[in-house]
Predict the structure.
Amino acid sequence: MTLMKVANNGSKSQVPTFDNWLDRLFDVPSNFELGSPVASAKNTLPAVNIIEDKQSFKLEIAAPGYSKEDFKINYEKDRLLISSERKEESKAEGKTTRREFNYGSFSRSFFVPEDSVDVEKISAQYQNGILTISIPKKEIEKKVKQITIG
């Protein structure tokens, strides 16, 4: 709950404080409540770019602040599943102690038919906040069959 000062003209104006300014600077309000816009923003799925060329598909997943150990990538039954779960705890001490827990997870799946890609050669790399997954295509054999006219 946030207390608001009501001006004489009936409009609401928040009394600026140092804590309020600091929270806005880092976009981490101290009055964080589940269901608030900030709560839902922290639990969104990462953005994904899908790039296709003649030899492969490439997935670029924006996931800044993670490490490569935070990700799990599995391929099973024509589905590529990318997931992550992490837990962080930060603690700041001074005159008062401020402690925040941060739990985040996501899971994305993509239909990738095994007959069109080389599953054994799928590779992944995490650099500068971007998880890049390379999925090479299988070479399609062109079968030419001569048909005789009877």
Observations:
- The beta strands are 5-6, 12-13, 48-52, 56-62, 71-76, 79-93, 97-111, 123-127, 130-136.
- Helices lie at 18-26, 37-42.
